[in-house]
Amino acid sequence: MTATTSLRREHEAILAVVSCLRAACRSAQTSGRIDALTFRQAIEFIRGYADAWHHAKEEEHLFPALEAMGLPRDGGPVGVMLHEHELGRAHVRAMADNLEAAGRGSAAAVDAVIRNGLGYAELLEAHIRKENEILFEMADRVLPCEEHARLDQAYATAIPDGADADSGARFEELAVVLCERWKIDAEEVVRSQGRRFGGTHR
Predict the structure, then answer these.
(1) pTM (2 d.p.)
(2) If you ran DSSP here, which 8-state letter would residue 70 be given?
(3) What is residue 194's predicted lDDT score, i.e. its pLDDT?
(4) Are 91 and 168 in contact (CB under 8 A)?
(5) Which has the minimum average pLDDT: 72-81, 95-104, 159-168, 189-198?
(6) Which of 5-14, 26-35, 95-104, 184-193 shows the lowest mean pLDDT across its residues?
């Protein structure tokens, strides 16, 4: 087990919710109306799990460990990942800011929710592919065994304010609920990502 094993597993839940978000956006494009519950739950999951839970482990623990091993932040893969985290947050803010008006039927707000939902989905799919197939592979090679063990233990402290040790499991259950609603096969999502990019998923 390496310091990226649990992060890869969390990527699978994130990819599943991203697929549900994409499906909700496509449905809204056809109908002109949004499924407000899906978007609220997707935003809740993204903010509470993908960002405050998962990204915190990367930003507070894994990325600094890689920098300490000589991997540069500026102009390097860590800097790219951090920049993409910020881009994702901007998409989510825009979705959240327009959600109420979109629920009331504002065409401009519906368009903004769809545009940012699809933008987030495209960004995260590519982002996760780069982490799984490039940055995490690099981490598995360059970090010494004791550092992998230290990081895995440190992740336990990366619990967001107001959360607890069971919060991750509850968010993963929310991912299952969304997949059932949109008839998304989460395991097939992960397999298709591997086929699309020619990579493997552990």
Answers:
(1) 0.91
(2) T
(3) 59
(4) no
(5) 189-198
(6) 184-193
Listed in sequence order, the residues at least 6 apart from 151 whose beta carbon sits closer than 8 Å to its beta carbon are: 3, 61, 62, 65, 143
Domain boundaries, the chain: 5-197
How many Cβ atoms sit within 10 Å of the Cβ of residue 28? 21
Helix (H, G, I), strand (E, B) or coil at 167: helix
Which among 181, 187, 173 has a CA at the least distance from the CA of 21? 181
Which structure tokens are listed for 113? 């929710």
Q: Among all chains, which residue has been given the structure tokens 């949004």?
A: 34
pLDDT of residue 119: 98
Identify the CATH homologous superfamily for domain 5-197. nmb1532 protein domain like (1.20.120.520)
d(C-alpha 16, C-alpha 21), whole Å: 9
Answer for the pair 45, 174: CB distance below 8 angstroms, yes or no: yes
